[in-house]
Structures are given as C-alpha cells and as structure tokens.
C-alpha cells in the first residue's frame, strides 16, 4: 500500500503528536478517524476539523475500515491495545507508531500480530514542552527527523509507505535505522539529555538562584520540565542503552573533574576545542 | 563619584563586552577612551563611533584622565595590568571589571591597589557565542543580571556608582552578592552548565549522530562551542566552588542511575516532578 488520499487513516491516541499528525494529514484530504481516552479531545479535534470522526470507544466499524492505523500511545498501552483489539483490524491494514523506544516494542508487537496485518515502526523526533491535542500544530515537523525502524519481518512496500508518510507529514529528514541503532542513538541524543537536565535542575536547591540565572542554565534545563509518566516509562523501556550512555557521560565528566583538580589547563583546553569542533556538526542546516 | 556624563570613562580590553559597554555608554554622551591589544579593534570602534579615542599603548594621558576605568580582560591579565600600571591611574579614580570569578581576583586587586583608587568588582552576566568588538551590541544586557560584589573595603558611594552603571548599561536586574556567594552561584549556574555541555558533546563520538538530533541535544550543547582560553582560566580561578557543584551533580546523577538500574519508577517520577516544579521558577519573567 502506498499512501493515497482514498485511504482511511485511524489515529489511536489523540494527544500532541496524534493531533498534529491529524492536522497535517487532514489538509491533504485523507479521511481521518480517531480513538482516544477523553471525549474532550475528540470534541476539540472535531471542532477544529482535525478529524472526520472520533470516539472514546473501541468502535469496530472505525477500526475495521482503517487502511493505515497510527498508534500514538504510551509504549505499554500500545502493546496492550494490540493484545486486546488486533482482531478488529482490517485484513491488509498497515500499522505504525510514534513510540520513542524501539527494541523492546517492535519485536514484541510484530511477534504477536496477525499475519495479514503489518507493523512498521517509526519515531517522529519532534515534541514540545506542552502536551494535549489542543497544542497540536502543523509546524512541528519542519526541520525534524523521522526515523523508520524496519526489521527482517517488514516488506519493502511497508517501509516505503512509512517513509512516504514521514515526508507527507513534513519531516525534513526521513531515514531508517535498525531498532538497536535507533535505541542507542535516542539513548544518547534524547534520553541522556533529559537525564542531565533533570539532574542539573534538582542537584542544588539553594534558594533565589533564579534571580541570577543566565541563558546557559535556562537552555540546559528547558527539558527539565518533563512528563514524568511518559519519560520514566521510556527510560525503563530503553534501560540498557540508556545506562550505557549514562556511563559514557559519567566517565568523561570524571576526566574533566580530574583535569580541574590537577589544574591540567592544556587537557581542559583540548577537550574544549574538540567540543567546539564537534558542536559545529550539530548546527541546524 | 556618581556617574555623570562629564566623567571620562576608559575601557581596558575592547572585546565583545568592552565594546558593548562602549556602545551603550557613548550613546549617553560620556567621553569614552579605550586601550586594547589590537589596532584593528581600535580602528573598528572609532569607525563605528563606539569610542572617542583609543590606543594599543599604555598611554599615560588617557589613563591619567579617566575617572572610571572598566577592565574587560582575562583575570590574570587584569591582575598583571594593575601590578604594572596602577601608578598611572588618576587619584580618586574608580575602577571596576567584568570578571566572571570574584573570590580569587577581588581581594588580590584590592590588596595591591593604591589607597587613593577604589576597586569595586562587578560581573555582567551576559555573553554571546561570538567574541570580538565587531560583535558588540547594545541589546545584550536587557533581561540580564548585573552582580556587584563589594567587600568590607568598599565605600557605599562606590557600590552605588557601580550599581548605577549596571542600570545605565541596561541590565534588568542589578544586585549585590559577596564574592563567595557570587562564586558559588556562578559555579552552579554558569560553570557547571559549561562543564556538562562540553562533556555531553565529547563523551560519545559515534559518527552521523547530527543527522538524528533534535532540539533537546542542540539546546544542551549550544554552549559547548566555547572559548577554551577564557573558560579554562575561569574554571581554575573558581576551582573549589566549581568542584563542589560538580560533586553535587555527580551525586544526583548517580541517584538517578541507581533508580533506573532498579527500575524504581516511583523514585524517577518523583525526581521528574520536582524538576518540573523547580524549572518553573527559572522561566523568564
């Protein structure tokens, strides 16, 4: 199946990401349905014309009609949903997700899934500090990465369709990684950074420091405002890869501390020059 | 001396900060002179009307005429300058600085300084990732903090004048701290954040990660592009306070790591909620 606008798309989980997907895809003319927990999210999405129809129930017709189902749920809820309701999916349907960890999820879902439905996993690397469908925006994906994580079980067609979906959504960079490569990458680039931010934010609770802060501290702690339910789950689901990245960070931080203790200025300057050089690679192009 | 526009101001060290000071103060009508290392900086500042006169020499007339001298130099160069040239300062002159560490500098300078000249230290908490007088801007100080760090040797008049200077420059928040309080604060809010950023930037040198990065990693490493000469000196000059902050960070990071290893989700969520709550204090007002 290649994405064409005669296809019906179902979004399960209408939060910030699900809502933003709906907003972009609706504009292309797809028929969009949604299933989510709160009636208020459905009401909002209908009133803003993000979706054509939606429900808080497990609606057999809506599920059975969908050619493409996008799961925008917490990892364990996604797994539970498939366990309980996969019988309702249309034969030949393609399902994909937005889950931020892959190794622990992708194989589990593919293992349990019916043979006539294919799951191709993807991670849209975009987010905001706010959540909920009310904060949906069609501007969120420009400049961002969309990573498809196929396994040996996936067909070339499903991989193509999923990459096409990423491009339709407006992601600037659509690529593939194995689930393992993805988890290592995300452990470093996203999860380790969140670990650092929450540690920095909580390691010194002296009062009144906000009166003296500059932009550096604000930048390093922007993501210290964090959805505790989601991130604690993501951390645990990617435990091994994240611990490995935490250890890399700890070792290097310890090196820096020893250089400071011994006043090894040359060593510190060398590290700073390498840091400066590497940072240039990460500038927005 | 209260700052009035009949006073002559000398800026020693015409880089990003010195140049930005000149730009703002010149607009108020002060007579601004400058002494700096490179003739090209003087030429630029003259052509842009940031200063009235300037030289790369130790000019006795210019130094002897200044009522207020602002030192915008690296810490050790500032100390050397005072050792060598303080005899040229006008009797009754007030001197101040922009140095990012205080304990190691303020007492040393006040100790060696002539009795008829007063040094009142200040730290303008503003900066950019670029340096040099060519990047001077009069927009840099709005929203930023200006911290005066008086000691028992300072007169109330000098403290007042220095605070008035901070307000004239356009800083939004002008306060005083003891040199020791300042160094602890700066060790945490500024130096620790730079230590973290350069560690994160250098702890994993796997290739191609820039293709997958999101804004979180970019935010946490913005300041990983760093002036190695200046920051290694600032770190060493504030060694004790910075090591203390690094240890606070290490202890808390270790706590988080243990919670992840033991899958203590409640503990992680508690830390994340505290992080979220504290981060709200640091929002720009």
Please explain how this structure is put together:
Chain A has 285 residues and is of the alpha/beta class. In chain A, 47% of the residues are buried. Chain A has a 6-stranded parallel β-sheet. Chain A has a 3-stranded mixed β-sheet with strand order 7-8-9, with helices on one face. Chain A has 11 helices and 9 strands. Chain A has 2 domains: 8-177, 3-Layer(aba) Sandwich (Rossmann fold), CATH 3.40.50.720; 181-281, 6-phosphogluconate dehydrogenase C-terminal like domain (6-phosphogluconate dehydrogenase C-terminal fold), CATH 1.10.3660. The longest helix of chain A is centred in the C-terminal third of the chain and has 24 residues, at 179-202. Chains A and B meet through helix 7, helix 8, helix 9, helix 10 and helix 11 of A and helix 7, helix 8, helix 9, helix 10 and helix 11 of B.
Q: In short, what is this structure?
A:
Chain A is an alpha/beta fold.
The CATH C-level name of the largest domain in chain A is: Alpha Beta
Number of helices of chain A: 11
Number of strands of chain A: 9
Major β-sheet strand ordering of chain A: 3-2-1-4-5-6
Keywords:
homodimer, 285 residues, alpha/beta, Rossmann fold, 6-phosphogluconate dehydrogenase C-terminal fold, three-stranded mixed beta sheet, 9 strands, 50% helix, 12% strand, elongated
